[in-house]
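Q: What structure does this chain adopt?
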Amino acid sequence: MKGYESVIILDPNLSEEDQKALITKMEQLYQSNGGTVVNQASWGRRKLAYPVKKRDYGIYHLFYLDETPPALKAMETQFRFEDNIIKWQTVAVEDITVEVQKFEKLKTEGSIYPQISER
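A:
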């Protein structure tokens, strides 16, 4: 199944409650436009490669989304208006279930396992 992989970077000064509220808002927006959020994951607070909007750190969040272009357009439009989202990137993937499996494998035994398991 074709789909999208979307990574957003949130303001590092957001509280846990504000992060959850923003993520829930984005999920509901995508679903209200006919899309389905297949999977999501929080990567936590990480150092950015270069400063973005005068911030050196960001809170990364990953969405795997089904192929629904109107829902994606609505979601990306909302990304532009959210002050707490400092950067985002969305790419199309050929098989979303394979990508989710690859991510789960990385989480359990790959290069990001030590970082995610510490949280």
